Protein 1
Amino acid sequence: MLVPDLILHHGRVTTLDRSNPEAEAVAISGGIFTAVGSDKEILALAGPKTKKIDLKGRLVLPGLIDNHLHIIRGGLNFNMELRWDGVKSLADAMGMLKRQVAITPPPQWVRVVGGFTEHQFAEKRLPTIEELNAVAPETPVFILHLYDRALLNGAALRAVGYTKDTPNPPGGEIVRDAAGNPTGLLLAKPNAGLLYATLARGPKLPFDYQVNSTRYFLRELNRLGVTGALDAGGGFQNYPEDYQVIQKLADEDQLTIRLAYNLFTQKAKGEKEDFLRWTQNSKYKQGTDYFRHNGAGEMLVFSAADFEDFRQPRPDMGPEMEGELEEVVRILAENRWPWRMHATYDETITRALDVFEKVNRDIPLDGIHWFFDHAETISERSIDRIAALGGGVAVQHRMAYQGEYFVERYGPKAAQATPPVARMLEKGARVSAGTDATRVASYNPWVSLSWLVTGKTVGGLSLYPSHNCLDRETALRMWTENVTWFSNEEGKKGRIAEGLFADLIIPSADYFSVPESEISGLTSDLTMVGGKIVFAAGDFVSHDAPALPTPVPDWSPVKSFGGYGGWGDSEKTVAQMASACGCAHSCNVHGHNHASAWSADLPTDDLKSFWGVLGCACWAV
């Protein structure tokens, strides 16, 4: 037995290892778990140079792995984006916007690029164009809401050059006033290409700034307990040009998340040529355990892309879909490349499966880890066909952000199994979970775990009956060991067990015992990847990784607001409130835990006055 480099002890370790489900301590050497057991067993392995960390009785979980995250694209832009993810009211969101406008120099834009829904706001609405113009008369403002619309103020319209003479692109609409002039509202009908193309007209960060931006995005994910992710490519994410930043970080050993990436074709009718070139120039699995190639997708061919805008009718794929998809899938199967395919509706999945089964008759797909992404309306028949062909389904929490729109169009009964996660697991299908961040949903993994457990949207709508909700351990497995099949890393990570990568987290509260309403508010107090602590806070802050260089540019929203929920700013606000607190004694409601009380999901719209209404002394100032 190796003498451990590090021992973590006095913890409550949920290993997800069925042969050893609970432990008190772990030993780590060379970035690998070398022993998992009781304090007595593990501490006895220590040598004179072994570092020991007392976990103070805290819960320990395997690191979270996102099965579908646009992490490479998100990193290039993170420092430029004002995040409304998790913000509770439109008033607060607009306050953030106003402050950011005040410090953003021309010709830069203020961008809110997805990760939120109007239903999360107490006001249950988006800002108006008039409100944006009032806050920002001269600074361009671009707000992307899910994949359905974008809001541009007058300055942004001028910056992108849209006029009454600008034609509507296929699948999109530039909304106009009675005189034919653009109002600032852009609609996906249902293709989000107009929204993305407009965003792409904005200024970009220089290369060194993109490196800094990506490091801050990685740290933000580490703060939330993410230790691994599968990158699903994305629109306007060209290979290899847009992979140079992440490759540099990988080469310099600065990645703090294990990343498996898929290659996403960028040009309609040019998909076959892309994959012919890539399969000749790239090798499946090339790279390291921190940055490695994971196959093709999520876009295989544009003719099969059924965009998930539930505010629009379901799009029918054209008759050319099968032929174009077959050409690409044959290339991938011949080269033994796995693939992932975006598919929202069962109608698309059914037609794609016809193609996959046809290819399988000539080129057996056995051993190729291919799967569908999203699959909100997948049928039992399609689940069975996927299983018979050896594939999987990667679900994401898009319904947590779009559930209200789905119900509005299709009704509450149709929404009860969108997707049918519990049923897929019951049938033994390969299923895992993720976010599809950063645009259509937030990158916060705890929101996804909350959605899986509660069946509720971030706006509080109950979508699923209890039989389509998961218990907490099953939901956790969806975010850990289940994901490893999708990156062909089974037996390497996803559990806390001897011989696996030493990736783990200590959540800020006990995931298994906090009220369901508090799951989405969890973060990580310690995140470890490969035996290295990449983030620490609270009880473990003294173990935190070295500070990153200051965010750049100096007007970056990250500098003022942090990330999810504006945490960087809210901490300052809560500290100011706490220092002004007039309590002369310990509050018996929440024990002076001002931060928890301020951010709690309480049954009222006005969180700030709620405890005062009940007479809590903590807010009687």
Protein 2
Amino acid sequence: MKRRDLFASMGAASLAGPALAQPAQNRVLKFVPQANLTSLDPIWTTANITRNHGHMIYDSLYGVDANFQPQPQMAAGHVTEDGGRTIIITLRDGLKFHDGEPVRAQDVVPSLTRWMRRNPFGQQLAAATEAVEVVDDKRVRFRLKKPFPLIFAALAQVSNSPAFIMPERLARTDPFQQVREAIGSGPFRFKADEYNSGSKVVYTRNADYVPVSSGTPSLTAGPKIANFDRVEWNIIVDAATSAAALQTGEIDWYEQPPPEIQQLLRRNRNVKLEAIDPLPLTGILRFNHLHPPFDNKRLRQALLPAISQSDFMSAIVGTNTADYRADVGFFTPGTPLANNAAMGPLTGPRSMDRARALMREAGYTNQPMRLIGPTDILAPSAMTQVGADLVRRLGFNADILLTDWGTTVQRRTSREPVERGGWSMLFTSFSSFDFANPAAHFPLRGNGTNAWFGWPTVPRLEELRDAWFDATDLATEQRLAREMQEVAMDDLPYIPVGAYMSTTALRSNLVGRVAGLALFWGIGRA
């Protein structure tokens, strides 16, 4: 996109210099997101851009604060009966969907049922649940097979995919089909009439939204106060164009500027750069376990001596080692379950020759493989470029298929073999919340065709995960996490390729941003 096209797509009149000083302009926040929004359904996909969209318009029964503690959000509270086997949750007063209908327990039950079909934490809760029932319009009852102490943490999940509440008619959509409407009860409304995928997404403040009455905004907990009447997501794939617009005040917030652009922005006193999440995001190399060549465990293992986590991470954030970690396992660095079990194959000497020898021993004889990835989103694109160079140098018969992120997200759902349009390998990254523990850790599941894209079957991982949910103390959780990492380093549902600090850039006059991800409550203009 050229600079002149930016004015055309965003509306030249609204971006003219004098308009920025007008009071009406102060009620509009202009934002450049990390990628194009192609799916509106945060239950159907784990794409972070759709998760962020979900937090704009939906709400959940519970939120999570910065200390990872669940707090009531749509819920007024709950009571526990029968030794923890019955949980009754009461909805707050004043909850209303964007179509004007009140939020009822009849909406909550199918919303949670749909979420539990797709989300790993939700699947675990479902396995412990006898039934989720409507008591009356304001109350939902969980009848559990056994106590599930993490039920509120599950319902409060921040990322991929949160237990968002939808109207009943939408919540009854098959969980493996996308919801085509975006109607929630959250602090912003989605403007379907202004949605133009690849160009612009618009949200307006929900005047009917009633925030929780107490507390401090902290991640997804506390009052969600919308200070802007209108939020515009402008899809601009060219980093220089985004940077120029941020510096001149034509946009307010650039979610994910690349390292070279960050250096430019640091010199502008009207722009500030800060970590969007206090903890690092983890990058992964994901295999397709259903088809050759990576249905062969020995071939997956053969790549380990060739993986340099620092190569992948420096491609995302630059060469400053303070901005990334290159000794990363299967849990988020800096969290209690992060450990170094079985990490030798990733932290020992690197050797392309050793990797090629292991490939031959694994029986690789030039079978075709396909690496899919995006060109328009910073971290996955950078990792894909490093990965493409790696598989070529290793001697794979590689087809490198690069598209926009939305197409990659759609393509990775295919279970077909390569010769029928499928894929073999992809790179992506996950928020710190996703890998903090086994509960919501999508790529660490080993439940076959019910697993996240790539579909590994690793029964031992599932056994250890189940045991983690029954753990009664942190020491036991940590022991089980080490065992899970040992199993994962052997079977390789994916390969961790490092962790990085994600930096975001905002106009200096924006204050009150809630840390963790791109959230739009709390933030305002000074």
Protein 3
Amino acid sequence: MPDRGGGPSGPRIRVGRPSRRARTLLMTLGVLAVLAMAFVMFSGFWTDWLWYRSVDYSSVFTTQLWTKIGLFLVFGLLMAVAVGLNIWLAYRLRPPLSAMSLEQQSLDRYRMGIAPYKRWVLLAVTSLVGLIAGASASSQWRTWLTWVNGVSFGQKDPQFKMDVSFYAFDLPWYRFLLGFGFAATVLSLIAAVLVHYLYGGLRITSPGGRATAAATGHLSVLLGVFVSLKAVAYWLDRYGLAVKSSDFKATDSWTGLRYVDANAYLPAKTILFCIAVICALLFFATLWRRTWQLPVIGFGLMVLSAVLIGGLYPAIVQKFQVQPNEQAKESPYIKKNIDATREAYDIDDAKVTDYSGKNDASDPKKLREASDTAASYRLIDPNVVSPAFQQLQQERKYYQFPSTLDVDRYKGPDGKEQDTVIGLRELDITGIPKRNWINDHFTYTHGYGAVAAKGTGTDSTGSPDFTESGLPAKGELPAHEQRIYYGEKTKQYSIVGGPQKELDYEDNGEKTTSYKGKSGVDISNPLNRAAYAVAFNEPQIFYSGAIGEGSRILYNRTPKERVEAVAPWLTIDGDAYPAVVDGKIQWIVDAYTTTNGYPYASRTTLGETTADALTDTQRAVVAQQNQVNYIRNSVKATVDAYDGTVTLYQWDTEDPVLKTWMKAFPGTVKPKSDIAPDLMEHLRYPQDLFKVQRELLTRYHVTDPAQFYSGSDAWQVPDDPTNRQSNAVPPYYLSMKMPGQQDQKFSLTTTFTPNGRPNLGAFMAVDADAASKDYGTIRLLKVTSNVLGPQQVQSKLNGLPEVAEFVRNLKGTDSEIDYGNLLTVPLDGGFLYIEPVYARGGTANYPLLKKVGVSYGDKTVFEDSLTEALNAVFGVEGTTPPTTQPPTTKPPTTKPPVTGSTPLAQAIADAQKAYDAGQEALKKGDWTAYGKAQQDLQDALRRASEAGAAPQPRSGSKGS
């Protein structure tokens, strides 16, 4: 470049424009950076679309997408136009700047600086507020869809006689519109004030008028709009009283109008509405009067009225009218709250019966006979025996069972249903022998097999009596596809179906396989591979040679995750459970529709209400709305464990919330009539709904307002006496008979204690069998005598000398005691408590059922078996075992006798010898010898299997 002069002589650094090649390179890099950022954003959208299309729920994705886009554009544009129009109007109404005051001279610098960029500033401001408003509005897609598709409840609130749908669907949308209107008005007002001040329409220090007539008129209209919106808010607040939460001594979560609301707040809101309308008219009148005197006076009156009428007056009414005779004043409103709450939580038909809880007059022999058919006493606690499943049936280190197993019903060899504890052998990638990307995502892709055990008894060693076991699994369950690609523990992605083979099994051992299911997203093409490489932050997906023709990626693999994704309007139960249905393993997921807008119904917090001693991350509820005051188990969903197919079935055909969502997402929920009979046999009453209902019934079993107000008959859910932590006792599934029933019903049960007291207050059971005509019927036995509660029974059991001796002997063998579920069963006017007791430690580091504690009336016993315990507690001898308790397991059976000193014969002889040694050690309580015998037994059985035999013992050994 030529020298411009002015600098010192000497060497000069030549600074010039970059060369054409450098400019081209910089431009290319800039374009590539923009394209890269665009592709990162695109990849998230594209992979979501591919996933929804792969599960055949693309309509859910598109409905959400277009709803969000529509709300974003409409409300973003409205906000931008509102703010931009007022900025433009304020600029057009600027006064001529003839006489420049010092204030205006200082502002002139800013005006001159902005002048060349006025349009860009206007565009930037309106774009920013538009983007923020649009993003906020798009998050209201659920509110919009329920408003536009809302279905009538067919029920009216007792105060305003409005349909419940108004509060559930309409009022939330109106409140959003009102909030948006306030935001648009306030932002427009701020923007207008700034522009008017910048261009002289408003003056602070200049002599003369503080505002021009044009500025006065403009700002007055905006203030009038603001006050008009406030009038609308006062009017909506009237209806909001029906769903307003407040503190009230009768309940911790009162919802709805009380006396002070109906007789003070309600008329106050009406008066304030009228004052606000008048005040708004006064602001609009300044367009002609050109003075703020009257509207300012009106606004001050409105503020004063809000303090006096809206705050002070209700306080006076509460102090001098309600408090002196609160029970009488509040009774009509308490009654409305009781009725609405019982209806909203579907507990209004609960059958409450007085029950003595004591029986000292019955013949012991008759009681003993009745105990045999009162229930199928589930001695196998699914919350305790998971380590036994893991130890005996894990088979490979890279498999695992859930920490809490599930209870279901399956038919035994005799064709009768039996309570069954079941768990799936799912993949655990932390146990893979050699961890690398190929092994984690290509080779080890799925779990294998369902493992089931009788719920009512164990084998002779105290281990679960498996009815389905081994790898591959064999037993009493119907034949089914055993590969588990989708499960509660399966959270990593897998790539299947391509060149890389997967580890699999057959009767003769390991083999390889290639996924044949329809699940997953095709990633054989470069676009999809690149998108997933970016979305999963894994570059190897793009260039790995293990991916090729037919490769599919599986992700979102937990049942709850899949159901929540395809039905984002549902709240998912915390306990998905597996069932063998029609040759497949299906995960069954209960789902709820909820709202927090049911008038007068008290609210509950799902996360707190559904928490108990067993709740963990696996069993936590997936809540769309954590605070609710209406809930229905409206949908039963299934997820195929092999191909991930998600199916939603309408369960509650009357639920207006579900009908609303079915209108919003047509075709996503199948009718109830499509549920196959084989699936219906495994559907059950959901635990989380039951826990919500039992929490509400601690107070709302009372229907008399005076008694409800006094709280004299309030209950509480007791803490789990078998758990050292102070957490609520979980509900238990159990086949049992309630008083008046002739046959056992698969039920979900719980106990209550009086508030602040340990004795038994009530017993609750719901018919949990979906195929039963009485499904969902809640029965409450209200205890009228002083009966021992769960904690008292546990304490009494712990205090028995036999228990103390048992614990001492366990400590001597380096073992510990585990208490199983404390079952409560009504029996002939009293309550029978049954608790399995497990030993854990020594050579068998998993729980073995060793003792059974039983309590009835004032007597508590601790025996070796359920039969002995029942005989002892009723004081009878020689009674035959109950039909629900399996007979004592015999030694391992073999093929017909084999003659000669062959390896097979020797192995069978060794197995018999090891079994006899184990039984002898068991009688002596020698756990070391027992553990050695079990190891010898397993070794002998393995040798017998290798030699050609196929014994199926029930001795707790692997492979049983």
